[in-house]
Design brief:
single chain, alpha/beta, ten-stranded mixed β-sheet, 11 helices, 12 strands, 38% helix, binds ligand PBG, zinc
């Protein structure tokens, strides 16, 4: 009989051994929890296609943030649901816009919470595109100015970091320049550097009521077939002054996360998006998978691929698991 010389099973025999040699560990420090904020008072609406995720009014932010902190979550990413929309997304940079109100409230009541804002126009335009439309097309350069104004208004409201998600060319340089001119040189930019035109955003578009009213986003978001192009997009953003590079979605793009980790020395973030969350929730609800285990395995795989930061609607659920002794 020929025996295997090396037996990997030796190190898998019990939980202590497995713990000793575990290569990847999730930590609550790296989780970012997205929040949807709407106008009004004392309202908390569950998003139908994202069970467990709510749209909340500004006055309920403090309670939400304290709950997050109690679980060890120290960063949130804000999305706004404005009352009014128009062709150029003016609500995105309104002094008293929904995000500006939300940021001021959070930084006043829970200053220790790191507040990151999504910088985009799609929630604020009546046509649902991420920029303004000229000649039936999303106009890149006209949009840049509005985006920079938006980022500046977030910083003025007190945001700790801005995260542009629009995918216009040159927006990192434009935003960096405007922030610097206004003495916000210490506010970092987390760039949605590699954002694909993905069907996984479906539930988010319900949540934020921002589905495009005509056409789709393929003329600005990336083609899911392209991996090399991700490196080019990321290089541009690094050159323009991005501080953190994000890949979005996460699970269908683990190869892209790994490539960015390999090629760049900046922190890499991955956005585990609404559809990725919804699929796990739906299958778990049907009893087809163990939702909690699949959640953990999924987030672990994102970390193993190379992400330093994970933005996920599972942040609170995962934090609870990380808190409990195992
Ligand atoms: C705004 C934005 C979107 C998401 C984050 N920022 C929607 C989109 O690009 O269509 C999606 C997040 C998610 O699906 O969880 N542009």
């Amino acid at each position: 009989m020929v025996f295997p010389e090396y037996r990997p099973r030796r190190l898998r025999r019990n939980s202590a051994l497995r713990g000793l040699i575990r290569e990847t560990r999730l930590s609550v420090d790296q989780l970012v929890y997205p929040l949807f904020v709407m106008t009004g008072t004392q309202k908390r609406e569950e998003i139908v296609s994202m069970p467990g995720v709510f749209r909340i009014t500004v006055d309920l932010l403090e309670k939400e943030a304290r709950e997050c902190l109690a679980l060890g979550i120290k960063s949130v990413l804000l999305f706004g649901l404005p009352d009014k929309k128009d062709g150029v997304g003016s609500g995105a940079h309104a002094k008293n816009g929904i995000i500006q109100q939300a940021v001021r409230e959070l930084k006043k009541k829970v200053p220790e919470m790191l507040v990151i804002t999504d910088v985009c126009l799609c929630e604020y335009t009546d046509h649902g595109h991420c920029g303004c439309i000229i000649d039936n097309d999303v106009d890149n350069d006209a949009t840049l100015e509005i985006l920079a104004k938006t980022a500046l208004s977030h910083a003025q409201a007190g945001a700790d970091m801005v995260a542009p998600s629009d995918m216009m060319d040159g927006r990192i340089a434009e935003i960096r320049a405007v922030l610097d001119e206004n003495n916000f040189e210490s506010i970092p930019i987390m760039s949605y550097a590699v954002k694909y035109a993905s069907a996984f955003y479906g539930p988010f578009r319900d949540a934020a009521e921002c589905a495009p009213q005509f056409g789709d986003r393929r003329s600005y978001q990336m083609d899911p077939a392209n991996g090399r192009e991700a490196l080019r997009e990321a290089t541009l953003d690094v050159d323009e002054g991005a501080d953190i590079l994000m890949v979005k979605p996460a699970v269908a793009y683990l190869d892209v996360i790994a490539r960015l980790r390999e090629e760049f020395d900046l922190p890499v973030a991955a956005y585990h998006v609404s559809g990725e969350y919804a699929m796990i929730k739906a299958a778990a609800e049907k009893g087809w998978i163990d939702g909690e285990k699949v959640m953990e395995e999924t987030l672990l795989s994102i970390k193993r691929a190379g992400a330093d930061i994970i933005i996920t609607y599972f942040a609170k659920e995962m934090a609870k698991i990380l808190q409990s002794p195992r």
